[in-house]
Amino acid sequence: MCGRFTLTEVDPDLVAQTFSLESAPELPPRFNIAPTQNVAVIVRDVDSGRNQFMLMRWGLIPHWSKDPSIGSRMINARGETVHEKPSFRTPLKRQRCLVVADGFYEWQKQDSGPKVPMYITLKGHALFAFAGLWDRWIEPESGDPLFTCTIITTAPNELVAPIHNRMPVILARESYDHWLNPSYTDPVQLLPLLTAYPADEMDYYPVSRKVNKPINDGPDLIERAADPGDPPSGPATSAPCRAQHKPEILWRGRIFPMLSDQDIDTIRALYERTAARVATNDAIQQAIADIDWFSRSVELLNAVVQRKCQRLSRLVGGG
Fold first, then answer.
1. Is 268 helix (H, G, I), strand (E, B) or coil?
2. Do both 245 and 194 map to the same domain?
3. Which of 52, 143, 243, 310 has its CA 20 to 30 A from that of 208?
4. Distance in angstroms (rounded) separating the CA atoms of residues 20 and 51
5. Tell me: the pLDDT tens digits for 282-292?
6. Using CA atoms, how far apart are residues 182 and 174, in angstroms rounded to an integer?
């Protein structure tokens, strides 16, 4: 599978040149891209015939699905059966894309102890693209479209096989046009591309287990780790501080200023209890824990917003 990847080479000119774009937007470097987050995608515009840059949510929601939560379980599509599965066979024919990246993580089992994260790249840390599929889902109430995507996986090459039993399909640069070409709709024309990238053109090394948590996102995550189990240095291991425990998704949304100290402490304690339950550092278990924590946090935030609205209503009514 592919559950985390990076996009650190974000120079717009390089992105535009690599993927035959007229121009590319300024993007922040990402060192720990996780499912349900937005990812950089290249599609072929049918009308103009030109490549187009888009941001899509990682985790494909089929256009016919009534439950958007299915996307969190559709981050990968097996290349061997992608032409048979109802969720993927139509996108394979008409809605293929390139998912832009420059590295990905897989977790290697050890004889004892937790798994060790490995950072896998092309030699020279070159920019590349995963083979992807996309779909357009319409939110029933608002009618707003949501574009989502999945990354296709295949059997691993000799380099990745000791680490994991699957790997994402990395397309050769000369295959980009073939993959995006809308005239190719027959699986016979497409499935031969879904093979493992040559092992002798790739490299990997161990990194810190800090990458296990999606809230961590910084250049230190891709540094070679002498001991991946070493705890992070600096503020992350210092005495508890409310600012250090603000979950990134809430911090970026600037929701915290409206919360009381008690609300913040409740969210912090909930997050710490959830993290403590994940004893194995397994990527999937961590994702489940993060989803559980986030859903509970949203419930708390909804209650806070309701209290604020009720207070505002009373103030307006009294005025």
1. helix
2. no
3. 243
4. 7
5. 555 555 555 65
6. 16
> What total number of domains does the chain contain?
2
- Asked whether residue 217 is domain-assigned, the answer is no
Surface-to-core class of residue 157, CB atoms within 10 Å of its CB (0-12 exposed, 13-18 middle, 19+ buried): middle
2 is catalytic: yes
**Residue 221 maps to a domain:** no
Task: Give per-residue pLDDT as tens, 177-209.
Answer: 999 999 999 999 999 999 999 999 999 999 999
**Which pLDDT tens digit goes with each residue over 219-272?**
999 999 976 555 443 333 333 333 333 343 443 333 444 555 556 566 655 655
Q: Which of 2, 9, 97, 149 is catalytic?
A: 2
Q: Where in the sequence is the domain holding 303, given as residue range(s)?
A: 239-318
Averaged pLDDT, 53-70: 96
Query: Angle 114-33-129 (CA atoms, 0-180°, nearest 5)?
Result: 110
Q: Are 207 and 245 in a shared domain?
A: no
Active site residue 272: no
Considering the domain architecture, whether residues 249 and 208 belong to the same structural domain is answered as no
Q: What's the CATH number where 142 sits?
A: 3.90.1680.10
At 314 the pLDDT is 62
Q: Which residue is catalytic, options 9, 97, 106, 149? A: 106
